[in-house]
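Thread amino acids onto this structure.
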C-alpha cells in the first residue's frame, strides 16, 4: 500500500518496452514543474503515483490529438455534424466511452455541432533518429503542462512494481498486411487467420481489444510490440489513421501515376454501349494546400474518420455531364448516363443493365485518387460496391477485407477508404466497352505516365499490367 501523501517518480530510460523503468523517489516540486514531463495515476483522492519522463536525445516525439495546443503536432478532427440536426450517441463499451453517430442522409435542418470523441491529447509516437527510424505508439499525449493525468475512474493497474493504464476511448492498432487479407491463410481448424485489432496502453503494452471497461490482465495481454509498420491502422475513437512508410509508398501508385491512369482511360476513348458516347473520367485532382496555414499552427487534418485528402466532388447531375461513366454494380458493365430500361429517369436504383439484363444499382464511377491508400501500382480494374470508387484489384480487395471500427462503437465493418461508405466484401470487376486492345491501352498509360511523372519516379518501373482479357470489350 502506498503512503497516501508520498509521491513516486519512475524514470523512463527508454531502453526497453518493459524494462525501461526504474522506481525513484523525487522532489514533488520538480514533478509539479511544467518543465518536467510526467504521468499521474490517481488511485484515490489521497493517493497518486507520478511517473517522470526524461528527455531522450536519440528519439523524436510527435503527438496527435484534437487540441490545437502547440504541444500537438498533428490536429485531428472528426466529420461535421449531421445536416438534419439529429445526433445519436451510443456506448463504446461503457456509458463514458462514447462517440457520435453521424446520419449519412441529407436532412432539412441546420448543421449541429457535435462534441468530438477524439481525445484532445490522443496518442504520442516516438521515432528513433537513427536508421531504420523505428516508430512506436503510446496511448495519451502530454498537455500544455507536460502532464498526462489518469483520473480516479480511468483504467489503470500496478504490475511487477510498474504502473500502466488505458485511456477512456482507447488507442487501437491493426497491422493490416495486404498479403494476410488478399491471400488469407487458414488455421488448423480451417478458419481464416487474420490480424486482430489491439489496444495500446500508456506505456506501450499491447492488449486484446476490450469490449467493456475492465482491467487488462496477463490473460488478455498479447505478445506483440507497439512498433508502427507500413500499413498499420490506428483508431483514435472517431478518426482512423493509416500509417505509411517511405519505402512502402515508393512501391505504390503516386499522384502522377493516378493522373496517368485517368489520362490513359480517357485516351482509350471507351464508349457507352447504349448511347455511343465517349466516356471521360474527371481529371481534377483536389488536394489540400498546406502552404496557406500559419507556420506556427500545427497541421490540421480536417477529414473524415480516415485521414484522407478530400477528393470527392459533389454528385454530377445526369444533365450536367453526359460523358461521365456509370457502372452497374451487379455485373460491372460501364455505361454513360441513360434512361433506357430504367424504372425512373432520374433513379439509379432498381435498374436493369441493357447488356446482361441483370437488376442492379447504377452509380457514378469515380477514381479513388488518394495515393496513400493504394497498395500496388496496377491499373484500376475494380470498384467498391456501392460507392463506385475504382482502384486496382489488389487495393479494392484489400479494403473490402479490412475491418474498420464503427464511428460509435466497437463494431467492425469494411469501408471504402475514399468516402467511408460501408462496402460489400466482394469487389466489382469493371467491364469497359470499346476497341482498345491491351497493348494499345498499356502504351497509352505508359505515355501518359512518362509525360506527367516527376523526375524522382521517371526511372521507376512501369505500371504492372493487370489480368485483362485480350480485349477490354465485354459488350459482346
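Threaded sequence (476 positions):
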Amino acid at each position: 500500500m502506498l503512503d497516501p501523501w508520498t509521491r513516486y517518480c519512475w524514470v523512463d530510460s527508454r531502453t526497453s518496452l518493459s524494462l525501461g523503468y526504474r522506481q525513484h523517489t523525487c522532489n514533488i516540486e520538480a514533478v509539479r514543474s511544467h518543465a518536467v514531463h510526467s504521468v499521474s495515476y490517481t488511485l484515490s483522492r489521497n493517493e497518486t503515483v507520478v511517473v517522470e519522463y526524461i528527455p531522450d536525445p536519440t528519439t523524436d516525439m510527435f503527438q496527435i490529438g484534437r487540441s490545437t495546443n502547440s504541444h500537438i503536432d498533428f490536429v485531428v478532427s472528426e466529420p461535421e455534424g449531421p445536416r438534419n440536426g439529429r445526433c445519436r450517441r451510443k456506448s463504446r463499451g461503457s456509458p463514458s466511452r462514447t462517440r457520435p453517430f453521424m446520419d449519412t442522409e441529407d436532412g432539412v435542418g441546420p448543421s449541429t455541432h457535435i462534441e468530438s470523441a477524439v481525445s484532445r491529447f490522443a496518442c504520442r509516437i516516438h521515432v528513433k533518429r537513427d536508421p531504420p527510424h523505428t516508430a512506436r505508439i503510446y496511448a495519451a499525449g502530454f498537455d500544455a503542462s507536460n502532464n498526462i493525468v489518469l483520473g480516479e475512474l480511468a483504467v489503470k493497474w500496478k504490475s511487477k512494481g510498474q504502473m500502466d493504464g488505458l485511456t477512456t476511448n482507447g488507442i487501437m492498432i491493426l497491422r493490416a498486411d495486404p498479403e494476410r487479407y488478399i491471400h488469407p491463410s487458414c488455421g488448423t481448424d480451417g478458419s481464416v487467420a487474420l490480424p486482430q485489432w489491439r489496444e495500446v496502453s500508456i506505456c506501450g503494452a499491447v492488449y486484446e481489444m476490450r469490449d467493456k471497461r475492465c482491467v487488462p490482465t496477463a490473460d488478455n495481454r498479447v505478445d506483440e510490440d507497439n512498433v508502427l509498420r507500413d500499413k498499420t491502422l490506428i483508431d483514435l475513437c472517431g478518426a482512423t489513421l493509416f500509417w505509411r512508410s517511405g519505402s512502402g509508398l515508393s512501391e505504390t501508385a503516386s499522384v502522377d501515376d493516378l493522373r496517368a491512369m485517368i489520362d490513359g482511360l480517357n485516351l482509350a476513348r471507351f464508349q457507352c454501349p447504349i448511347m455511343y458516347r465517349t466516356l471521360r473520367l474527371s481529371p481534377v485532382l483536389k488536394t489540400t494546400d498546406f502552404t496557406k496555414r500559419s507556420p506556427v499552427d500545427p497541421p490540421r487534418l480536417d477529414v473524415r474518420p480516415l485521414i484522407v485528402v478530400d477528393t470527392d466532388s459533389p454528385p454530377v447531375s445526369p444533365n450536367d455531364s453526359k460523358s461521365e461513366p456509370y457502372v452497374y454494380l451487379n455485373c460491372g458493365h460501364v455505361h454513360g448516363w441513360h434512361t433506357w430500361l430504367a424504372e425512373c429517369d432520374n433513379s439509379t436504383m432498381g435498374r436493369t443493365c441493357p447488356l446482361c439484363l441483370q437488376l442492379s444499382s447504377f452509380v457514378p464511377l469515380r477514381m479513388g485518387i488518394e495515393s496513400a491508400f493504394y497498395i500496388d501500382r496496377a491499373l484500376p480494374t475494380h470498384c467498391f460496391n456501392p460507392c463506385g470508387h475504382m482502384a486496382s484489384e489488389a487495393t479494392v480487395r484489400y479494403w473490402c477485407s479490412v475491418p474498420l471500427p464503427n464511428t460509435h462503437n466497437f463494431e467492425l465493418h469494411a469501408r471504402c477508404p475514399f468516402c467511408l461508405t460501408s462496402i460489400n466484401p466482394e469487389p466489382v470487376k469493371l467491364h469497359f466497352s470499346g476497341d482498345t486492345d491491351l497493348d494499345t491501352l498499356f502504351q497509352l498509360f505508359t505515355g501518359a505516365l512518362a509525360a506527367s511523372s516527376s523526375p524522382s519516379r521517371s526511372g521507376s518501373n512501369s505500371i504492372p499490367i493487370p489480368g485483362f482479357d485480350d480485349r477490354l470489350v465485354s459488350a459482346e
